[in-house]
Amino acid sequence: MTTVTASRDAAAAAPASSVRPRPRGRLDWRLRFAALSLIWGFSFLLIKVGTDGYAPFQVTLGRLVFGTAVLAAAMAVKRERLPRGVRTWGHLTVAAFLLNALPFSLFAYSELTIPSTLAGICNATSPLWGMALSMVALSEDRPTRVRVAGLGIGFLGVLTVLGAWQGFHGLDATGTTMALLASLSYPIGWIYVRRTLAGSGESHLSLTGAQLLLATVQLAVVTPLFTSVPTTFSLVPLLAIVALGALGTGLAVLIQYGLVAEVGPTTAQMVTYFIPVIATAAGVAVLGESLTWSTPVGAVIVLAGAALTQVRRSA
């Protein structure tokens, strides 16, 4: 899953020609927005189901393989070529690790010990990390009182979700830390992309296709070192991995960039606020995960804080 930061920086890095009027016959952006929210919201459930039958690295590798296949098909249809230049590929290798290989693997490992609902809420902290990091790394992105307040409120929400007042009782610290680190990895990656690949002249489809390809290679190297070939192939977890890759990674990226180009990053980034709601509903309704009062209350506080961190000074 990408994040608020992803949508904003994708637009910032886009060539002016990428923002075009909506072509005739394209599905209304509101329906695509809803579809993207559902796809990313259900991704945490699919990760959980996938890890029921396969090792986390195998889930991540499968996700990347099928996601890359979708991007490759889209590039073939649009006759896009992979980017050129050793420097570009070097930067994409780092971006692939920070935006795909690392966070996807961390989420998969985290869901071995924490519910998919908690993983989805941890993902919602990404805009908070992004705002905190941008104050240090991006000189043009200066904080305001409202945004700093949002940062504080958001992390108060995180403490509420985790039940800090009761000493984090019953919480798996390792799994939760992995999910939070995965969420932190996204804004680090997008700040890196913004500083190194913005204005490269390559299309987003080309760059993203190459990035997923590189992340797939990274996982293809790592996975055999830490896992063995499965002796049996569980069908339902396998189908979950296919859906996670083809829909949650490949198709979702195409929908996201289409939304950014059509309605702008401010509207497109609002999808982030629906993801934890859908992830929580899916985890409770489909997987039967338990839900205490602090989880939805904390999630609302996190989202309120995240929304405030996106408020900009009026020109």
From TrEMBL:
EamA domain location: 34-162, 175-309
InterPro entries xref list: AA-Vitamin_Transporters, EamA_dom, EmrE-like
Segments crossing the lipid bilayer: 29-47, 59-77, 89-110, 116-136, 148-168, 174-193, 205-226, 238-259, 271-287
Protein localization: Membrane
Membrane topology value: Multi-pass membrane protein
Keywords assigned: Membrane, Transmembrane, Transmembrane helix
Major location (coarse): membrane
SUPFAM superfamilies recorded: Multidrug resistance efflux transporter EmrE
Similarity-based family: Belongs to the EamA transporter family.
PANTHER family tied to this protein: AMINO-ACID METABOLITE EFFLUX PUMP-RELATED (PTHR32322:SF9), INNER MEMBRANE TRANSPORTER (PTHR32322)
Stated name of the protein: DMT family transporter
Organism per entry: Streptomyces coerulescens
